[in-house]
Amino acid sequence: MATREELREALDDYTGRAQANERVRKTLKNWNNVIHLDVTDLGIAYTMTIVNGELTSVQDGAIGTPDLIVQGNSEDLTNIFWGDENPASNYMQGAITTRGSQEDVMRLDAMAMLLYLDAEKK
Amino acid sequence: MATQLRRALGLRSIVSTSTGLAFAAIDYLAAASLIGGVAGDSAWLAVVIAGVLLLLVWGAFSELNGLFPTAAAIRLYMAKAMDDRVALTITFTYLLTIVLVVAADAYIVGSAIAYVLGGALWVAIIFIVALLALATLANLRGIRVAGSVQDIATYTVLLASAVIAVIALARGGFALRTPLAPVDASHPVGNLIEAVALAIFLYSAFEWVTTSAEEARSPQLIPRGMLIALGLLCFVCVLLTLGMSHLLTASQRATAYPQLFLAERAAGGIGLFIMLAVTMLTAVNTFNGAFLTASRFMYATAREGSLPPVFARLNTWAAPWAPIIALGVSSLVCAIVVALTGAWPVLVATGAALEAMIYAVAGYCVWRLRHKLPDQARPFSMPLAGALGLLSCVLFGVLALIASVTVGTTTNPAPLIIILVAGALAAAYVLLALPRIRQAEAARRAARGSRREAARAAKAQQAVTSDLTSQPPLP
What we know:
CATH superfamily of chain A: SCP2 sterol-binding domain
CATH architecture of chain A: 2-Layer Sandwich
Radius of gyration of chain B: 25 Å
Shape of chain A: globular
Largest sheet of chain A: 5 strands, mixed
Strand order of the largest sheet of chain B: 1-2
Strand order of the largest sheet of chain A: 3-2-1-4-5
Order of helices and strands of chain A: HHEEEEHHEH
Radius of gyration of chain A: 13 Å
Order of helices and strands of chain B: HHHHHHHHHHHHHHEEHH
Strand content of chain B: under 5%
CATH architecture of chain B: Up-down Bundle
Oligomer: heterodimer
Number of strands of chain A: 5
Number of helices of chain A: 5
């Protein structure tokens, strides 16, 4: 089980990489989304806001009405946001569950994949 | 109370999605084929019996959907109920159904347009190519049919088909000639069983709506929506078989567009054009639903590491281009082969057999998971799941076998051969190629190392350095 601080650190790292990634912004350029991250074992939530493909912020708490809700435990989510685990594998194995449109799920996964591929090149 | 989403599917959209995915243009051909299999106007009986049997399937998919309310459900419940390699082989073979349905719709719509324009086969082929190219391009550009448009399209198709069928029945004064012929002792019972196996195809894909479980306003809406969809499909298909059996000749029923003849006989030239428009509308739903479902599933499977990574690449419109092109090209090849050979009954039989196969698998999964995951919450519980799950498995297994060796009214192993070849290719991929793809991915990940661990180590190093620098200098 990851701590709240570890998860926050992973989210900050992910946000920084997403904001710096031109390919993410280009591929997801028309995507606007509010995502609630529901961390089941810690009982906390975060709100990710994406504007025109750019991950603008990750705030503490479930703020506003979401387009997509992602549920998972702190360990899986921390590893996913560090890029150490494949979110699609977690999803296909039922470790991560979502509520919302499949298009949004695919785009969120694509963001993780593009960041992963980019980090691999460096 | 669970957080509500900004956009969520209500019951109306779930019913329209379930019905729209099932009611493709090929349903008109399947309905016409049924009439040749049983005497007089009694094909409705096969439609109703198939509908009743599908209540077992409805129960199975409702339970599985409740256990795994996700678009990846088919992977989850099959992988948990059986060996993952078997599950993947079945899943990849089942993907063939989507190719067949898209190909069939392109062929039927192309042929229908060519017929109305008075064109020859090559005109139909041009329209088939144009339709599939349009569908592929629209999907590559990430263009989606809005939910409300899909709702209107589905309900218009159902209403227009039912109205045309009722007008056709009215022409004969609503008099049924031999409505119960199959249960008459003078008719072989085998004909009725074959007709029921084929009639399953009329409902096929109604369960694909379970892939929208994550988008539903409430989980209970999916079982309710599927049940209403089954009722609607049964009602419209019964009317169509009755109308066709009253007004169409055997040669008209054997064409690729019996619905056009039905509409023309029922309502003249206006009816013909209305039915042409309705046939084209069915393609909107089929192409939209099939391309979306198949391409997203292939994308997720590739991301999981079970298909080559190229299937997970996105284009600048965030669409997974390789699955879309693969689906477009394979459907085009299949549609042109059918147009040149006129072998659409083989397509119907193959689709019916594959659907019955997946229904048998769903029954098995319900039964198996009741033993493997007895304590997992089941928002929908199939009554007598132990017995009915197994019954469903055996029943649909037998119907799959019958459908796979029956083309029209004759015994023909072509569908079985197609399914076996597809299954063998899928198995070869899963057993020979997939381990190498997974090994390569594991090696890539291992070479990359853990970023989390690296950050942890860097933090520890920073703490040590900071401790050293904060210590007072030695005297």
